[in-house]
Amino acid sequence: MxxxxxxxxxxRGALALAAATAVVVLHRKIWSRLTHxxxxxxxxxxxxxxxxxxxxxLAVAGDVGDSDSRLADxxxxxxxxxxxxxxxxxxxxxxxxxxxxxxxxLADTVFRPFAPLLDAGTPLLAVLGxxxxxxxxxxxxxxxxxxxxxxWARRIGDVAIVGLDSTRIDHPDQRAxxxxxxxxxATWKVVLAHHPxxxxxxxxxxxxxxxxxAPLAARHGVQLVLSGxxxxxxxxxxxxxxxxxxxxxxxxxxxxxxxxxxxxSFSAHHxxxxxxxxxxxxxxxxxxxxxxxDEATIVP
Length: 300
Hints:
Blueprint: H1 2-35, E1 45-46, E2 56-61, H2 69-84, E3 89-92, H3 106-111, H4 115-118, E4 124-126, H5 138-144, E5 152-156, E6 159-163, H6 172-182, E7 188-192, H7 207-220, E8 224-227, E9 233-236, E10 243-247, E11 262-266, E12 270-276, E13 281-287, E14 291-298
Parallel strand pairs: 2-3, 3-4, 6-7, 7-8, 8-10
Antiparallel strand pairs: 1-14, 2-12, 5-6, 9-10, 9-11, 12-13, 13-14
Helix pairs in contact: 6-7
């Protein structure tokens, strides 16, 4: 009888927790509809290659793990552009597997969708998101994706790329690592973090990531910070010389909005194409039907 009573109590507790969670999720979705209104891009143009071949070219996709059929469309668009001119790296901005980072599902969200690039030898540059570290799976996913660690640095040509674990953004070793890595002598410096330092989207700005990244980005002349987490596209005006881009709608999209720092924002499935030369970086948001939805040129 005692066991039966305990089981009933546990069941009631679980049902109460589930109901409370459902209420919170529903509230957030309703509130998002009221406050985050922006839909698709105002205007698009068909993709066309740049006049000259860039020295370094990267494809960037965010939140591939929250996947539906649109992930296949986005990955096919990446493959189509890679067939025209190879990418030097495939960047994934975290939340690589929903709901809890199980590395056995990376075949569905990473390895099969992006096989045309990965099978051709394109380096995979990934960071962890909040869903990837659940149930103690962070290190298993790091190993499965071939990441050097939970935070890392990589040099491709004259582009220095630093990947962070924003789920441990306050770790003192990571701060010291970022400061040292950004001191590198490189024309271009790019930081990756799943949580966005600046965001007008559903999740909003991640203040802890901003406290770490923004001062060091300004000090070391970082031109670009890339994040996911919000399932939309956003590009900031330069903030102390750094442009902050949110690109988290490779698979699932949400409504977005604008803030004082917003230069562009929209809600559409997309990835980001980065082309680096000696004197400019051309950033393009590309939709699944190969339309340029946003374009910006950044100088060193």
